[in-house]
Amino acid sequence: MKISALLTSAGINTGLCVLLFSLYSILRKYPGNVNVYFGRRLAQEHIKHSDPFCFDRFVPSPSWIVKAWETSEEEILAIAGLDAVVFLRIIVFSIRIFSIAATICILLVLPLNYYGQEMHHKQIPSESLDVFTIGNVKEGSKWYDLQFSCGTVIQVKN
């Protein structure tokens, strides 16, 4: 696989994420979807329905993301229950673990694998991803020991 193909794939996935976030932002404003997104709140109180021909419904707004980040665990527990709180804790824990591992791998392991052997490197976008594997590091070299140390640090952190 070429690095340029990987970057193209990452760009496509990022574009799809932006599209889906925008679609969610638009669809959650439609009166027909109020029961889906605000079911418990509707059961507890009556929400005033807005004008069905309002232009604001067609404009994606990221305000729901800010509200989601500001919500405390106590509010989530009261609204959605204990299962939602446990699920969110698992997600946050996974993000923290992945962040540590990704930082170590991007800053140490990838450059170490790339320069593991004395070889002529072409331009990075046209090279194969094989240059970033441990197979590019000679066994018994100081780079191999550093590779092992990075793997150990990631294992201990997890």
TrEMBL record:
InterPro entries: Csc1-like, CSC1/OSCA1-like_N. Keywords: Membrane, Transmembrane, Transmembrane helix. GO terms for molecular function: calcium-activated cation channel activity. Residues 5-154 form the CSC1/OSCA1-like N-terminal transmembrane domain. It comes from the Eukaryota. Pfam families: RSN1_TM. GO terms for cellular component: plasma membrane. The chain crosses the membrane at residues 7-27, 86-112. The keyword Metal-binding does not apply. This is CSC1/OSCA1-like N-terminal transmembrane domain-containing protein. It comes from Tetracentron sinense.
